[in-house]
Amino acid sequence: MWDALAARRDEAVDFALAHGLIKAGPQGGAVHAPFTLTPAPIPPALHRQLAGLTAPFNAVVWRLSRDLDALRDTLEPAAAGDPFTARLLELAGSTAGSQPLHLDITRSDYFLQPPDGDAAPRPRQVELNTVAVSYAALAGRAQRLHAYLFRDAPVAAELAPNDPVTGLAEGMAEAFRRFGHSQAEVLHVVQPDELNRFDQRLLEFALRERGVPSRRLSLEALGREGTLREGHLWVAGRPVAIAYLRAGYAPADYPSRDAWRGRELIEHADAIALPGVAVQLAGSKKVQQRLSRPEALARFCDPADPAEAGRLHATFAGLYDPEEPVTGPEGELPAWRAALQAPSRYVLKPQREGGGNNLFDEAMVAFLADSTPARRRPYILMERIAPAPRRALMVARGEIADAPAVSEIGRFGLLLADGARLLRNADVGYLVRTKHAGSTEGGVSAGFGHLDSLVVTGSPFPPTP
Ligand code: ADP
Ligand code: MG
């Protein structure tokens, strides 16, 4: 089974290239994106549970983003030590809010934590992404690859279909129609040297198929070329219906005054900001940590469903302010001291998105050992989640690895509202990123993750081919 599958490497690489499972190559052109040949098993009940968490988490983000006082209250201490958070928070306070339409694309990422004993594994949320959520298109292509490889195998019936880019395009197309201007376009705000641009382009093409035209621009170019007139944001003679950010989450996306002006234009115009700066901040690490307190979470849950907060909270790992007391084998200690004593049990995270920013192991110890309260303030400590490794075949740069691996499962969500009225709030599919069991970060762009798919089964993979 394993040899027969591994022998199909070249066929799988060609399938990937032929079907858009690709990224930009370092020397230009396209290369295949990293992928696996072995879908990740998930028990049926857990599969349903994860999909069912998406809409409630979306609504929490939406309600929280409408409560600027709560955001300020949570983020001001971090903003005091992090100029980027401070600037975004300031911008959140300055928006006119003339656009009643609200559109969010989210992705909630989980590991399945193995139980002590025989119980089913528990989902543990890694984080909830609310800005520049990526891999909706490539995740669907990875599933197509697996459907192709296993089409005549008994396991075919258990492969979980996945087409998130269609769900995103449909939601965006509805928002576009409701914006209601015949000349309008969707503006994709992108990083100038984006290697993951095919994932972005596939969404752009899916929008075009639904009658929605797009344009791509960096924040800096938007700042130079965009104008505000009659409430609209105008670019190249057309009003922007949706300003869709695939950039703007990292300080490096704001290299100049022009780039900040680009972001301000989006916030101040009546374009649907996807996301607005308040939603972006609602997905930040400090907010995630605050929401791990049951009373803070309950405030933003559905008042009509008293059990909802408990269901969401059950997926949280320990999340701590560095100064907050935690109880360990040595008694009660500030979390940062507990992390120094047991580094393998924690991850240190700054107020950043996009992968590659977190501190693990020695790097975390080196930072914490000579830190001051002021330097620690914009960070959170998170309990390290340890998913169970399984054997997997992973293909990157044309080379195959047969090695122990762990998978992170993301669920894509789309929410559309008009003022206080929810129009759509749904789970639209999933992302699986599988990495070598020993590596810490899991980003595909960062070179660690391999695009994967799910096989819904109670037994370990692979079942009989
Ligand atoms: P970012 O917003 O930069 O993507 P994440 O919080 O998603 O940051 O973390 C990036 C990666 O680090 C995750 O995809 C995961 O592989 C790893 N990671 C993050 N938090 C944990 C954790 N608590 N336990 C184990 N691994 C983690
Ligand atoms: Mg992330």
Tell me what you see in this structure.
The protein is an alpha+beta fold and 465 residues long. The protein has helices spanning 2-6, 9-18, 44-65, 68-81, 83-94, 136-149, 164-179, 197-209, 219-225, 257-268, 277-282, 285-291, 294-298, 308-313, 335-341, 361-369, 373-376; strands at 22-24, 30-32, 35-36, 40-42, 101-113, 122-129, 185-189, 214-217, 227-229, 232-235, 238-245, 272-274, 319-320, 325-328, 331-334, 346-350, 379-383, 390-396, 399-418, 421-436, 450-452, 454-456. The strands form six sheets. Strands 3, 5, 6, 18, 19, 20 and 21 form a seven-stranded antiparallel β-sheet that branches. Strands 7, 8, 9, 10, 11 and 12 form a six-stranded mixed β-sheet that branches. Strands 13-17-16 form a three-stranded antiparallel β-sheet, sandwiched between helices. A hairpin with a 2-residue loop joins strand 19 (399-418) and strand 20. Helix 9 (219-225) crosses helix 10. The mean pLDDT is 95. Adenosine-5'-diphosphate binds next to strand 6, strand 16 and strand 17.
| Overall form | globular
Portion in beta strands: 25-35%
Total count of strands: 22
User: Runs with pLDDT <50, length 5+?
Assistant: none
User: Main sheet?
Assistant: 7 strands, antiparallel
Instruction: Look at the structure and give the mean pLDDT.
Output: 95
Radius of gyration: 22 Å
Which ions and ligands are bound to the chains?
adenosine-5'-diphosphate, magnesium ion
Number of helical elements = 17
Report helical residue fraction. Answer: 25-40%
Secondary structure category: alpha+beta
State the end-to-end CA separation.
Answer: 7 Å
